[in-house]
Backbone:
């Protein structure tokens, strides 16, 4: 379980993916490729990815759980899929806006 | 969160792209990242608690902004056009300060109380590039990202605070990562101490859109740069657009502006007459009107290109009026109009604009203006139409209260500006024995043109209610604006005192 805090960065134990917590409170078990995600300074040996959870995550996309109480930003791409508490996270669909800056 | 993340993502994904063109040099996002890393190291070593840029836009601007973020220190850019005494007073409020200034301001202020370390912009950039750190580290959540002194047309400047979470919420909620085409270039002509100058850097870096800087705005310089750098988009404040329109209508110059695809405008009231002329001059350009405040991390409502086209093409009065609106709220932003007692008002009713959302800070150094439910009172007056389009009526402090009736200056100004002889106009409250307050207008006539008070009164009477008809007139050579195009109504009021 990871204590969720906006700004916290986590990395995958099975691929190159990294995420940053955008929104979330309390604790969650975040996984990538079916394996718990790690703090940037942590490491793990011999983690085995779950083949069914290797569909990739895309840099710059925001991923959310069902009720959108959890939102993470993919900051480095990887082969693993993101999930929280065993449930896959989905890409947050955003309306395309004209640039106003 | 930390805005440095936006730059790091752009640096890794945007290989081969140019992020910034400045002073005839191109910079990739990875170069800005490494230079900011070098700057952060030196800011940390100085022990200073704030970083200020006191200069026009240059390559030093993004390096200072992101360098401060990586060092975990608030970035507090200062207005270089202020008188020296005012700059000195602001520096004293930023104890201790890491100051990056143009040569003259460096010489004038390096010994001011509050200065921890002072460098010229050239020196700062040179050192940052000499100590590049291609893989910088930064704190996950250092709190305050930016502190801006609001231009404050009333009272001493307030120090508005934007936390990293506010700016990140704004960017993640409104900009798609790497969404710019390879050829896109945006022209930034707003000064670096303005919220629009900061959001322009963050948005364009995250979208991987090349930034072209114009340090000192003039219409010919802006048009030259669009042509020379094949600029595809730009943000301008209303006075800039008005000058560009005038230059194209009257000037003898000719520019190839075919690369230009989008113009966004905001930062003040845009007269309908100016935007109509601009739409005529740039028929293929997408226009977007953005409304926002420093305290809301820039844009909170948008009137998009399609809205502009529909409004111009329509014969329905309600639809046409949309051209004078600032559009609808961003998906993550809520807007509410409230009366003086704080009760929510229905569409069509005018009151104070309240805003809520993750990008809204509403916080000053001294206090937070956010209420217990998260709403920020903007002190702007307006109403929503039935479809949620927001129409602004000016600042709450500028409303003219005539015999208990609230009159927004903008509605009178918009009518006066449709007169062919009127170049500029401002309506303010003047004292009236009968009504408490009445309408006074200051009018600038176009060169060689003439009209009369009676003719202008008749024009207003023909379009608006009789309470809007001006009682007092002043014909003047020009109206007073500050450097970002904000009309200084207090100065105009004094003309009628």
Residues:
């Amino acid at each position: 379980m990871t204590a969720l805090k906006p700004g916290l960065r986590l990395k995958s134990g099975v691929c190159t993916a990294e995420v940053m917590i955008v929104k979330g409170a309390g604790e969650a078990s975040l996984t990538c490729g079916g394996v718990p995600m790690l703090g940037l300074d942590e490491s793990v040996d011999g983690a085995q990815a779950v083949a069914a959870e290797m569909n990739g995550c895309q840099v710059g996309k925001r991923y959310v759980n069902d009720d959108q109480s959890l939102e993470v930003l993919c900051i480095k791409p990887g082969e693993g899929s993101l999930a929280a508490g065993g449930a896959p996270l989905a890409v947050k669909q955003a309306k395309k806006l004209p640039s106003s800056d | 969160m930390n805005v440095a993340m936006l730059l790091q993502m752009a640096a890794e994904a945007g290989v081969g792209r140019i992020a910034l063109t400045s002073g005839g040099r191109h910079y990739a996002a990875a170069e800005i990242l490494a230079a900011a890393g070098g700057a952060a190291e030196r800011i940390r070593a100085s022990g200073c608690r704030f970083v200020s840029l006191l200069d026009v836009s240059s390559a030093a601007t993004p390096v200072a902004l992101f360098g401060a973020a990586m060092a975990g220190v608030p970035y507090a850019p200062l207005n270089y056009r202020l008188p020296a005494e005012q700059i000195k007073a602001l520096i004293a409020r930023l104890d201790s300060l890491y100051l990056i200034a143009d040569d003259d301001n460096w010489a004038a202020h390096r010994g001011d109380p509050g200065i921890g370390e002072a460098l010229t912009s050239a020196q700062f950039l040179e050192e940052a590039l000499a100590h590049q750190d291609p893989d910088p580290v930064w704190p996950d959540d250092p709190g305050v990202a930016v502190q801006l002194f609001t231009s404050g047309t009333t009272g001493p400047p307030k120090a508005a605070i934007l936390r990293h979470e506010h700016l990140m919420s704004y960017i993640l909620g409104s900009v798609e990562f790497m969404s710019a085409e390879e050829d896109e270039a945006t022209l930034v002509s707003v000064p670096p101490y303005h919220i629009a100058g900061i959001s322009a850097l963050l948005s364009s870096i995250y979208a991987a859109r090349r930034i072209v800087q114009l340090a000192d705005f003039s219409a010919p310089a802006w048009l030259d740069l669009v042509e020379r750098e094949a600029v595809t988009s730009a943000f301008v404040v209303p006075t800039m657009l008005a000058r560009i329109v005038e230059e194209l209508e009257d000037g003898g110059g000719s520019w190839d502006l075919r690369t230009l695809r989008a113009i966004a405008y905001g930062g003040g009231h845009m007269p309908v007459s100016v935007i109509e002329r601009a739409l005529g001059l740039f028929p293929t350009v997408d226009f977007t009107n953005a409304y926002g405040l420093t305290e809301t991390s820039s844009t909170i409502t948008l009137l998009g290109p399609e809205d502009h086209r529909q409004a111009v093409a329509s014969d329905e009065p309600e639809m046409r009026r949309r051209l004078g609106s600032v559009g609808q709220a961003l998906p993550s932003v809520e807007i509410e109009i409230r009366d003086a007692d704080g009760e929510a008002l229905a569409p069509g009713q005018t009151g104070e604009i309240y805003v809520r959302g993750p990008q809204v800070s509403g916080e000053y150094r001294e206090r937070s203006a956010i209420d217990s439910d998260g709403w920020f009172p903007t002190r702007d007056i307006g109403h929503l139409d039935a479809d949620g389009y927001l129409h602004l009526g000016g600042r709450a402090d500028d409303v003219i209260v005539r015999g208990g009736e609230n009159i927004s200056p903008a509605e009178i100004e918009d009518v006066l500006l449709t007169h062919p002889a009127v170049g500029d106009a401002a309506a303010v409250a003047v004292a009236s024995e009968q009504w408490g307050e009445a309408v006074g207008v200051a009018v600038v006539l176009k060169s060689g043109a003439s009209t009369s008070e009676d003719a202008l009164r008749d024009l207003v009477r023909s379009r608006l209610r009789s309470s809007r008809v001006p009682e007092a007139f002043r014909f003047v050579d020009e109206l007073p604006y500050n450097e970002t195009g904000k009309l200084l109504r207090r100065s105009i009021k004094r003309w009628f005192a």
About this structure: DSSP finds 16 helices and 24 strands in chain B. The CA atoms of residues 267 and 438 of chain B lie 27 Å apart. The interface with chain A takes residues 1-2, 5, 8-9, 12-13, 140-141, 164-165, 168, 172-179, 186, 196, 199-200, 202-204, 207, 209, 233, 235, 262, 264, 266, 286, 288, 290, 292, 298-299, 302, 304-305, 330-331 of chain B (CB under 8 Å).
